[in-house]
Structure formats: structure tokens, C-alpha cells
Amino acid sequence: MDKKQAILKSVLKLVNREGFYHLNMKNIAKEANVAAGTIYLYFKGKEDLINALYSMIVNEFNQHVLQGYEDEKPVKENFYDMLNNAIEFYLTQPDNFSFIEQYTYAPFLFKENQNDNFLLLSPIYKMMSVGKKEGVIRNIPDSILLSLIHGPMNTIIKLHLAHKTDLNKRGAKQKFFDAAWSAIAVV
Amino acid sequence: MDKKQAILKSVLKLVNREGFYHLNMKNIAKEANVAAGTIYLYFKGKEDLINALYSMIVNEFNQHVLQGYEDEKPVKENFYDMLNNAIEFYLTQPDNFSFIEQYTYAPFLFKENQNDNFLLLSPIYKMMSVGKKEGVIRNIPDSILLSLIHGPMNTIIKLHLAHKTDLNKRGAKQKFFDAAWSAIAVV
Amino acid sequence: MDKKQAILKSVLKLVNREGFYHLNMKNIAKEANVAAGTIYLYFKGKEDLINALYSMIVNEFNQHVLQGYEDEKPVKENFYDMLNNAIEFYLTQPDNFSFIEQYTYAPFLFKENQNDNFLLLSPIYKMMSVGKKEGVIRNIPDSILLSLIHGPMNTIIKLHLAHKTDLNKRGAKQKFFDAAWSAIAVV
Amino acid sequence: MDKKQAILKSVLKLVNREGFYHLNMKNIAKEANVAAGTIYLYFKGKEDLINALYSMIVNEFNQHVLQGYEDEKPVKENFYDMLNNAIEFYLTQPDNFSFIEQYTYAPFLFKENQNDNFLLLSPIYKMMSVGKKEGVIRNIPDSILLSLIHGPMNTIIKLHLAHKTDLNKRGAKQKFFDAAWSAIAVV
DNA sequence: GATGAATGAGTTTTCATTCAT
DNA sequence: TATGAATGAAAACTCATTCAT
């Protein structure tokens, strides 16, 4: 059994279950079936542990979201695929979503990655520039486009996880994609 | 001098400056120019204090966002006004935004208002039902519409406060509104 | 309304209800319908207040216990009367009993009256010396006699107040008196 | 070195020296040569710690007081032995006595053992029922008998520890036992 | 590598007392 | 006299981190 992975998984589970506020080393150890001291064999401390988990998730996300992406495909198709990938990633691993959200909104909690907060959005930027060149995506600032993609996705996942909507319902995702696309597409 | 308000303002300032994680009663007291014990004259404890602040901000937001709303106005106009009000509220009081975000993403931190997390969205729901009736807003589930309104707004404010975009730039807001409207409007 | 008396009564009630451990000035004030600061107009502080109450009760007890005492009466009669007075005093004012007990067993709590712990027993000493002279009470050390009088009385009251016995039952007191007398009487 | 025992011993010493009122965790730790936090490894908190100590002492007492007790012995002999055991227990470990007294008279301080207050008297009850059957002990309610045994014992120990009497003096105990026996014995 | 008892600085909270009104 | 808001020292308790085994 890989203790390092077990520890990271514990953090993920606990942050999701009880929030950053109640996260403590003893519980992490207990959840991972490991002694408290063992954590310090793999991580410098609490901060390091959390930052490591964050990096891990961001990497996984970026890999996942780009699956099926091909420059040759129409932008719209790539857009749909990416949204789909992103949503799938979080719906199948909801703990990741909760963790990322909490991490992002904890200013100065763990300074190291301060500038990486939007790192996980990099694939989206790529697609936007192509779309603009081809004239299928509105010629408005990237940051505004970003808000029109990332924002709805973020909220719809949140609503789904809070059982306020059901993205698995027949046609639900399609409606969402179409509407989201309208926001950024040239008419 | 109202000590209760001073304490609430301190929390807001400190949460924004250093995050929930580093918030402690001694600093709150110092920031409010008050003795530590004084906080307990007005609040039962840390949780109560934070919940009180949350309620206060949500109330202020709801009042602010509905300014200028009139049933007689076209839905689109009300939509623009509301988005505008919301953005203005947070841009002029950015600490409020940061606080609400952190509060929302801290599961089980302070259970009391668990169901109020989306309370501050109530004005939006009102507008959506009217728009659907009139046929100007897409006939898709409210939760999806919500994600298309709340999501972009949320992200654009975040980007603005992080200096990744500038909503005060000439024409910026208008572009944003138009695009956001496209997402929810019937073509 | 005499605020000083109200304060003393509050202490008595609260010590009885919740114990010394939970006694605090704010509750005393509330119970007495008085502001916290008012207590300090009548007493130097918490210690002084409690010591004053102790002295008050001891005085009342001493007065009460000697009612009907007359040097001319037979020692046995005076003994019965005193036991009877003592028991009546505490049964009609059980708060007094609880207070005295707690005060007595709180070493160094309030140093002032340290040596007065057995002060309230002075009437008993008087009777013992007379009884010995007359040859009706055993010629054993006063301290042992004291234990044989004070001890049973103390315990029987405690048991009565804890509903483990009922001194108001017909004949109960008489049985108790007779047995207690046997312990100290010359056969 | 057993830290748990060291902590319990510290509480005993400090309660005896300064009373419940002044008992605090920092001093307990210091007295036990242990860090403050260590106490919480073995006890949930102050209440738990004190309740644990109470249980420990009551158990020790009950074991000690029954030493030499045999159903075959005459009741009077068992009575003398038990009184002797009890007195010896408390005279050799006076801190135990003070602690038990304070614990008993602190209503609602620590609720858990509320009904065990008289638990430590259980051996006495046993003896009384036998004595009554044999006709050597007065046929009066157990509760009254109890007061005539427990009461004097309690008070004489208190007086001894307060240096108001000296049970180690030649013949002192015997006088006390004889008198105490007279109270409960059939003439 | 692995443990988990122990630490003690730091945190929340309480409360006797003061003092401006 | 009387008030009760305010104080701040002291209390109970937490928890990241260390280290002997």
C-alpha cells in the first residue's frame, strides 16, 4: 500500500467532508491508517501536503480536460468536448471539485501557488484564441470569455453536487452546452 | 461608536486579508479596537459572529441588487440592471465578495445557514420566471439558467478583483452583459 | 427592597442549585435583579460576599439551635431540643445546609473564616460539659462526643434532603434521637 | 513512569492543598511534570479527569474497607474492623478524604456520578442487614443506622485531620468504636 | 521507514472587577 | 446609589510538529 497516496486521499476526503477549517493532521493520519508522524516522512508539513494535493488534482484535471482535443476539429466541437470532459471529471470525482474550490478561496492560506489559481484553465485559453481567429468566437477580451465558460461550468457543477439540478437527466447537458456556447459564439 | 459593527467590519477585513484559516478572535478584537472579551458581549462565539456577518452581507446584497427593479420594465433591462447592481455591489465592497465566497465553500464550517448558500440568488429566480412567461428567456430549467447568470458574474468579479480583467474599462461591462444575455435569451 | 439581602439570597439559591463551581457574579446579579456593579457597593468582592453569607447563616443557626435551651432542663432534654432545632433549621431552609457544607469543604477557598468551620457547633460544646459534670454523658474527649452528635445529624439531614430517608415520617426523628443519645450517654 | 497516574496524583494533591475552586489544568500539569496538553491524551477534560479520580478512590476505598470482613465473624467485630479500615484508609491517605468530601458537596459540578455519592457506603449496608437479622443491631431504618455509622466516622476523621482530636492516642479509637456501637446496637 | 506519546505555543472563551454615565 | 458595557488576565483546550523507540 502506498502510504503517500493514502495520505493524499485522506486529505481529499476530509476536506470534502468537513472543510479546510476542521482539517487536522491527526484525522488525516487516522483516515489514512497511518501514524501522525508518518505524514512528515512524505511531506514537509501541512502546507506542503495541501499544496501537493492541489498540484496533483490540477494536473489530473488538465490531462483529463484535453482528452479528445484536436486542433483539426471545429472549435465548437472542441468546446463541447472540453466542457464535457471538465464536467465529467468533477462529477465522477466530486471531492476534487470541493477541494479545488476551497483551496482557491482561501487567500494566503498557502501562498506558494497563489498565481496558479487559474492554472487549471489553461486549456480553455488555447481554444479561445483559435476560435477568435476563425471568427466563430466573439472578439471580446479573453477574460470575459473565460468568465462565460468557466463561470457557468463552475456553477452548474456546484448545483448538481448540491442536488439542485441533475446533469445526468436526458438532454440536460446538451441544453447547458448550447446555452453556454451562445454566450461566446458569434451569432 | 458602535462596537458591534466595528467587530463585524474587522472580521470582514481580516477574512479578506488573511482568509478564514488565519482568523482569530484576538486579531478581530485588535482590529476593532476592542478587548477580546467584548466580542462575546455581542456574539455567542466565533461561529455566531461569522454567521451574523454572512447574514448581514446577504441582506445588504439582496437590497442592493433589486434597486431599480420594476415589473413593468422589459426583462432584459431588469437583467442588465441586476447584473449591474450586483457587480457594483461587489466592486465597491470587494471584501464582501471574498467573504461570501469563502463562507460558501467551507462545508460544515458553520452549519446554520447551510441552506441559505444560494439565498442571495432569490432576485434572479424572480426575473427568470417572468422572462420565460414572456418568451424572451430560454425555456430550460431554472437551475441551468441560474448557472448561466450567476456563474459568469461570479467569475468576472473574481477576475476583476484579481486584476485579470478590468470591468471599469470603457465598454467592458456592456460586452459582458450582451454575451451573458445571449446565453439565456431566446434567439 | 433591600438589595443587599437580595444579593445574599441569590448566592444561597445559586450555590444550592449549581454549586460553588458555577457561581459567578453575573448570575448572582441577574438572580437578585440587580446590576453586576451593584454587588460591589455592598461587598468588597466575591470572597467578601461569600464570607458574609456564611457568617449570616452561622449566626442564624446558632440563634435557632439554642431556642428553648435552659440550664435548668435535664441535659437529655436540651440535647433532644438542640438536635431538633438543628434539624428543623436545615429542613426548613435546605439551601443553608448545602451552602454550609460546600463552604466547609472548600479548603483555602476563602481563608478568612478558616478557623470558624466548627464555629456553628459552639452550642453543642456547652451542653457536653454540663452533661459530663452531671455524669449523664460519657467521660470521653469532647472531640469524640462532638463526632457522635454532629456526625449523625449531618448525615441524616443529607440523607433526608437526598430523599434517602424521611425525617417527617411518624416516629423517625424519635428513633434517631434515641439512638444518637445512646452513643453519648452513660449507660 | 506512568503519566496517567502522575496526573491523577497531582489532582489529588492540588485539590487537597488548594481546593476545587483553585484547581486548574496548568497547575495539574506542572505538579505532574507533564505538558498541559498531555492531560488531554488521557482525559477528555477537567470533568472527566475529576470523575476518573473519584471513581478510582471509591474503588480503592471499597476494597480496603472490606479487608478482614468475614460473614462468620460476629457483627460487632466486623463493624469494628470496617470502621477501623475506613479510618485507617483516610488517615494514611488524608488527601483521599478531602477530595471525596469536596466532590460530594459540589452539586452539579460533575453530574456523571451523581448517584454514586453514597456508593462508597455499600459495604456498610451489607453489615447492617446481617446485624438486624441476628438481633444485635437496632431494628430502625437503614438510613438512620447509616447516619449513625457514617456520620461519626466522617466527623471524627475530619476532626483528626484538622488536629482537633488525635485518633492515634492510646485508647482513643476504642472509645470511639464503643460509643459508635452503642448508637446502633440493641441494648 | 514507521510509530504515536509528548510537547507547548497558540487559540477560544470566561468572568471578576472597573468606571463612565 | 445604581447601572451594565467594557476590560483583560487567566482559564480550558487544540493541534502541528518532534523524537525516542
TrEMBL record, chains A, B, C, D:
Residues 1-61 form the HTH tetR-type domain. It holds the Pfam family TetR_C_10. It comes from the Bacteria. One of its GO terms (molecular function) is DNA binding. InterPro entries: BscR_C, Homeodomain-like_sf, HTH-type_Tx_Regulator, HTH_TetR, Tet_transcr_reg_TetR-rel_C_sf. Keywords: DNA-binding. Residues 24-43 bind DNA. PROSITE patterns: HTH_TETR_2 (PS50977). This is TetR/AcrR family transcriptional regulator. It comes from Taibaiella lutea.
